[in-house]
Amino acid sequence: MCGIFGIVSPVPVLESELDILVRHSQQRGRDSSGLLVYSKDAYSAYRADYPITRLLNEVRPFSNHIVMGHSRLITNGLGDNQPVIREGICVLHNGIVVNDEAIWPQIGKERELQIDTEAIAAIASAHLDAGKSLETLPASILDLCRGVVACALSVPRLGKLCLFSNNGSLYTGTKNHAIYFASERYPLTVIGCENIEQVREAVFVDIPSSATDITICDRRERTTNLIPGLSLSGEEEKLLVYRRHNLRRCTKCILPETMPYISFDADGVCNYCKHYKPRNKPRPKEELFELVESYRRKNGNDCIVPFSGGRDSCYGLHLIVKELQMKPITYTYDWGMVTDLGRRNISRMSAELGVENIIVADDIDQKRRNIKKNLAAWLKSPHLGMISILTAGDKHFFRHIETVKKQTGVSLNLWGVNPLEVTHFKSGFLGVPPDFEEKRVYSHGALKQLRYQYLRVKAMLASPGYFNSSLWDTLSGEYYRSFAEKTDYFHIFDYWRWDERQIDDTLAEYDWERAPDTNTTWRIGDGTAAFYNYIYYTVAGFTEHDTFRSNQIREGDLSREEALALVDDENRTRYPNIKWYLDAVGMDFKEVISVVNNIPRMY
């Protein structure tokens, strides 16, 4: 996934305009970068494992007439980079080809790189070698590739640039006889382009032909691995402990006696059950159709869908496109804990539904350093109420949706938040009693938040390491989540009933990918969930799966016996995901798990 951009101009490109394209492209990912430049009758490619703004400053291609490039959010192929060049074909690709391994036997080519984009160049080479026309090439590529393919494919020997996309994450515009392209409309409007069009049909552009091989300059400095491998087994796995607990549980739901603020009546029924108000009782769909009517547009997109690639956001997107008949843009915030599985499902759904995906990627290196600092502080004074600080960095999700609204001019945002994902215990362990009157998963209220932050600061004083450079990132993220006003904001599951079986069956039709280390479909694209649930289960004997399944019991969706069987499976340790998480933040697996295993139990 990345942002791609380019200018094909009869005169030297303007530094100011190229700078606009580069900086907006970097908003989508800054892990690596690349440029393709035409100079002195030949094409040169520059690739680096650092941000595109720095590479641009080093190459300074401002006297040239053709400059294309990308700023990449690394998904696979850490040692490889774009532009991918193979057999005289140059590819800049935004998206993920999720079936790249299956493509190679079909085209009779040998794979040389790890990066999925190489399959696009190889298909192009095989297509042209067979004597087929360039005009039919995009259709051949899109016919073989699954997942998002938004592409700028150059064939210098033919003097052609081909721009095509299967989800609309590519735009073209013109200005003073020059042609511009970018992954989003916004930078082209800032430049002042005319005739801005979303690429739904292939666009072919004449470029200078050249029989000379493209020269390649690779600049590599990175020593850390941004994409740790998913280890399905390892010697360290033996350190993880999973025991079935004989805790007293509510006789109606399955909440245990270690749940914060729990109490039982004479019949053994907990106070959470007695105060529960049904959440999965949607209002008539007609109300939502009426609400969105004024937002519909004859041309262009008419809503934004926050999109993590998880189960509920993917199903929500399906409903919005297929049932509500809206034309959405999806928005993804990547803070470094979105796993490759989550990204692949984003790519699958966006391609299958033909939906543009706007990515805002934070500085992943910095975000992970923040997590490491806070995890190190937590390990010195383990406190179940402070586990949430490990996920504080993702709260800027709420900040950047406002950025996307301003850049696209689309105000309506439709969320696919599961109404049963209510986890009172996370703040309960900090000393916040449950708010049984809470109507939404994300509640507001200044007094409630101030009390929460006061209790958090008290807990932080027990381990001064929390007072580190990540503190502002944490506090500002909490502000945007809990205090900043949200407008034109609706939840799809306020109007469609959340049905787990129906959701799983529907997503299977999209070949939605499931995790190899668990049977649940919840939070499998979240790199943090397996780790924090291991802590909760080890210390308190339950996880968020217990609270979720308890809510399903109260809604009449599950029997108590079914719920107990499910959590017995879902609470099992997920070594691959825990290993990935600790590798990603640079923490020693043995040291971390040893601390967790030695925390006094609550039972």
From TrEMBL:
Transmembrane segments: none
Domain of life: Bacteria
CDD domains given in the database record: Gn_AT_II
EC numbers for this chain: 2.6.1.16
Enzymatic reactions: D-fructose 6-phosphate + L-glutamine = D-glucosamine 6-phosphate + L-glutamate
Group of enzyme by EC: transferase
Record keywords, A-Z: Aminotransferase, Glutamine amidotransferase, Transferase
This protein's record includes keyword Transferase: yes
Key word Transmembrane helix present: no
Entries under InterPro entries matching the protein: GATase_2_dom, Ntn_hydrolases_N, Rossmann-like_a/b/a_fold
Chain ranges of the Glutamine amidotransferase type-2 domain: 2-210
UniProt-recorded name of the protein: Glutamine--fructose-6-phosphate aminotransferase [isomerizing]
Organism in which the protein naturally occurs: Herminiimonas contaminans
